[in-house]
Design brief:
Elements: H1 7-29, H2 36-54, H3 59-66, H4 74-80, E1 83-87, E2 100-107, E3 110-117, H5 123-128, H6 136-151, E4 156-162, H7 169-173, H8 176-189, E5 194-203, H9 204-208, E6 215-219, E7 223-225, H10 229-236, H11 243-250, H12 254-259, E8 265-267, H13 278-297, H14 302-311
Parallel strand pairs: 3-4, 4-5, 5-6, 5-7, 6-8
Antiparallel strand pairs: 1-2, 2-3
Amino acid sequence: MDEIWNLYEIEKFLDQLDQKILTLRELKRKGQLANPEELNILEIKAQKIKEELYSNLHPYHRVQLSRHPNRPVFDDIISNVFEDFYELFGDRMGYNDFSISGGLAKLENYPVFVLGHSKGKNTQERIKRNYGMPNPEGFYKAIRIMEIANNFRTPLITIVDTPGAYPGDLAEQRGQFIAIARAISKLFDLEVPVVSLVLSEGGSGGALALNVANFVLMLENAWYSVISPEGAASILYRDSSKAPLAAKNLKITAHDLLSLNIVDEIIKEPLQGAHKDLNYTLNNIKNTLILYLQKALNLTDPKEHRFQKYRNIGIFDNLIKV
């Protein structure tokens, strides 16, 4: 199995290196740096280390980046990509699942409905939002927002960021799999265009329930799979520590999925991940969403386009005929 180093430990070392460079730059600015060449050498070495480590990441390193505590979440997208967000609550049956958020907003000058998994940015928020893992009521809330978007003939943008639907006993008793199936079915039935963004984690049916779209976009270090690498390793190898091997074999990265025609566009991140330059990442997200929303609005029949897109997944024209 491939040797996998801990990305967070590497990041701590690089952060210390960057801090030393900032200190030397300040000394140089004040004319107090005895050997200016030391700064140049350190800057070159730091950049070389970053490029060597991050330019060809193992799939499981991308999984680690997707789970970084400072990575952008749904609230960051709403605050920085969209305007005039008006949130809708409840599933019409007396419950509001905070792991699903959605409502009306504007993207540039386009009115849209936005719907996504919401993880929160701190421990208190993450507990409240169940770490982005919806219960059945969350999917029924999502279906409600889908129906409203359809009724108002307004495009829908979905933000996918979940390790998966909540797997608890009570969720299963209340019909978790039925709620997921109904959400998937509803997305296929919508007459309006749908654009989806896989922001970080795209785990199993919990992700697919919001990801049946005319165009699927994916951040460079996100992952999207039928199961998490840890879950797959536990089942296939009876050993969750083999998650890196599972991640490699599952083909869960943005580049893998683009090559398989499952996603339509990879959104570029900074070298060390989306959290290293949020403004850069959020600007890339906004510009790409606008581009693909315009493409979606030009579709003659978004519903049929969506059906054909998913109908053709897994079909290849280079198979050997027997």
